[in-house]
Amino acid sequence: MLENKNKVITMPSNNSKYLISIFKIIPQGWDTVKGMHALVGFNQYYNKPVFTQYTNDADMVLNSINYRCDYFLTLNTVKTRNRSVNILEDNKVVNNVSALGALWVDIDFHNCNDQQTKELKDYISNHLIDLIDVADVQSNGRLLLPTSIQDSGHGIHLIYLFKNQIQVNNTGMLVIWRKLEREISKRINQAILSVTNLRLVDTSTFDPLRLIRVPSTKNYRNPNKPVKCHVIKTDYKQGMTYDFWNLTNALLPKRPTKAKNHPHKINNHHKPLINYEISKNAYTLNYERCNDLKKLINLRNNEMIGYRELTLFVYACFNIRIVDISNLANDLKQVNDMFNRKLPYAEIHNLVREMKYLDDKSLYKFKNSTIIDKLGISLDEQTKLKVLISKQEKYRRKNKKRLTRRRKLSQQSGAKAKRSLRNKTILNLFNKGLNPTQIAKQLSISRPTIYSVLKKV
């Protein structure tokens, strides 16, 4: 987080009139978890970034500021000096987000001429309350107005700031954040469409680390006509900040409860909605995965430091598919109690709230290889687990079964079994009074073989 400096950051040399007031969109004194913001300078002439700063210190921004640059900032913080371009592409989550601090709606006028842009900016700025009302973005009868309204030069950013940063311990938080921003963007887009007959809200990208323009800098999309970015209105000092979970409760549908009836007991007039056999197999798989996670904790003598948060999250992703949301908290508490050093129960409550808004499509589908890698499950530990195993352990078990099956088959119909049957036949014929020559002729074998069998007797 940018340090709490009680001053406005100014541009160097003769450009000091262009102020970069970071704290107009990130309030001073905001309690924050460890993390960094990315500030990017982009030169339109060279069509490439001039610099990227990852810092907790606002003063470091001054070292790379260039007058003819576009400036962008991340509102959410990163863990390392790396910013994902598309963090949730194809449901593959690159979890480099340290904490979620805000969400925002990007209203873009890039297809409008200068006169239309000015009219749309004035209309949206002056009638925002009416648009929010039409969009039905409200909670308990209270309209959810943005904390900050920013003119980005060729558009408007509506920024909803959270009261406290939400620490990202697992990928489920990013999925919920993305759903929440998509829902708000969709509703506001429909409201603007109903009035202006234009789709102005960018609903194509929902990246927690995407960039927004820094206020009091200039937009050089058209280098010949740079437009100044500025904050139109900000109300965070008056308490216009939001609790992340209250927004989620108000705007997102909750996870549906599981049907009490048996899947195959359905009305004769309707086709079954699910394949019962597939559902049964999935239930068994997730049940055994949960048992394997508990067994892993026991194998490590309940010492899971460094893996506790991930273990609980993975367990929750599997467990929510076999139990109702009302029973999830109790199951997670039992797993947490197995740790030598328990996590605070607040972590469990947050995890349950996440699962409430993640349906089966949104839940992260962990592969065995991913779980084994992230939890550091050794080959020796895998031999004691049932389903959380690697391909190497899987093939080892298959080979072991194959060898056991071959040995049993060999004992029943192999060379040893045939030899034993032949020896019994020789003895039976000899006991009936046949001599070795007659036995050899009858069984089509040599007399030395007969003598060898009889000699052993």
Overview of the molecule:
41% of the residues lie in helices and 15% in strands. By secondary structure, the protein is of the alpha+beta class. It folds into 3 domains: 9-251, DNA primase, PRIM domain (Alpha-Beta Complex), CATH 3.90.920; 276-393; 414-456, Arc Repressor Mutant, subunit A (Orthogonal Bundle), CATH 1.10.10. Strands 6-7-11-10-15 form a 5-stranded antiparallel β-sheet. A 4-stranded antiparallel β-sheet has the order 4-3-5-12, with no helix packed on it. Helix 5 packs antiparallel against helix 6 (308-319) and helix 13 (436-443) packs across helix 14.
Key words describing this protein structure:
457 residues; alpha+beta; DNA primase, PRIM domain; Arc Repressor Mutant, subunit A; 5-stranded antiparallel β-sheet; 15% strand; Replication protein; Homeodomain-like_sf
